[in-house]
Design a protein that fits this description.
Helix content: under 10%
Distance between the termini: 41 Å
Number of helices: 1
Shape: flat
Radius of gyration: 15 Å
Number of strands: 9
Strand content: 35-45%
Length: 123
Amino acid sequence: GNDGKYGRLQAVNLKTMKIAWTHRQRAPFTSGTLATAGGLVFVGDVDRYIFALDERNGKILWKIRLNDVLSSSPVTYTTNGRQYLATNVGHGVIAVDRKSVVPEVTLPMIPAPTLWVFELGEK
């Protein structure tokens, strides 16, 4: 009874307690989510992508494929008046168990723990 999309991210309107939007995709998500005051939602998946989605409708605004699987939740911080997004990667237990679900997703032969930092642009 599965449609083959294992990744599911949903936003809930806390006033109405109804689902505001749903984002579905083949690859399961591996990180926690981060919602920012600027209306962005960040999340990563087992196929090594990190996404920025619009908090209002769940549309993908930006994505980039990293060198390994996100192994933590993204965070943001501000320094010298600029905002940054940071996350670390390096496949762990959650990524190792993916073959039965998404066998087409390949990981680097050698895990590559890396800290990624992105400067967030002007809105």
